[in-house]
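REQUEST FORM: STRUCTURE PREDICTION
Request ID: SP-0412
Submitted by: Lab K.M.
Chain count: 1
Length (residues): 135
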Amino acid sequence: MIKTKKLLLVNILILVICITLSICCIVFRKTVSSYIGALSGVVFVTVFSLLRCIKMIKNPDYKKQVEIDINDERTKKINAETASITGFIIIMICSVCGIITIFLNKFDYLYIFGSVVLLYSIIYLVVKALINKKY
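STATUS: Completed
RESULT:
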């Protein structure tokens, strides 16, 4: 239960960072392309984080361990949330980098940042869906 609360706090923190980044994009925007690029990535990640928060509140057993067959002889338990935490840490780093680029007025990089976050989020969702389908 403590681990679930920590994950929930991490998700809320990411949500706050994404919303802050989104507001910064609106306030400090220079070019339309960088604004659209960054905002599309931020909105996608924000919605994704919000859905995860709701899912964790509704289902306390969300962090169940998944059993994956490694050999015929033995079965190793792998925590399903490890990949999620890693993913969210990467997104959080991207968000912080995005905020830094806004204050440095490097808006060309902001467009690339938004696109990378959006692409990462899509890949993450596809991989997660494939894993859930397989097991």
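NOTES: Residues 61 and 105 are 44 Å apart (CA to CA).
Reviewed by: T.R.
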